[in-house]
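User: Here's a chain of 186 residues. Predict its fold as tokens.
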Amino acid sequence: MSQPRKRDAEATTERILVAAQQTFHDKGYDAATTREIADRAGVNLALITRYFGSKRGLFERAVLPHLSLGWFLKDGLQDGASRLADFYVDTALKGQFDPFVVLLRSLSSAEAGPMLVDAIQKQALDPLQDAIGGPEAEARATLVATQLAGLILWFRVMDKRPRDVQTRERIRKMLTDHLSGLLTPE
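Assistant: Prediction complete.
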């Protein structure tokens, strides 16, 4: 007689989150379905409701925490421009979960769009603005965010990341210089 399979809520939750991240990445919020996410995770559809309440609740847990600039701000702004340039010029996440690709693919959603705008404001722009300080902090933080959003769109979504090292190095240097001017109050 076979033993019933042991239930592990933590492992199941993690499988659902990973499946949701990949599905939202591939399709955006509106086109992703909870049925597809459950199938991808290998779980019963009812578990999404049980653990997350809804597709919205799942999106909030799977995607929104990853829009934070906490990883960057924890080390302060010293060498911040080069750290940002290194990360965004060198990181190729093709086929992997990229929260910024989810942002771009889901921003037009009536349900997800406001959540994303709020998350970016609270988790990225406001903390960056506070870290920059000074009278032009809001404008500087906005310019940093829009510069990086354009780079993400070009490199990751449109897959226009330069293949040769020399071009990437020139872009990295120019981006570092540009971001340095924005991150350093006058």
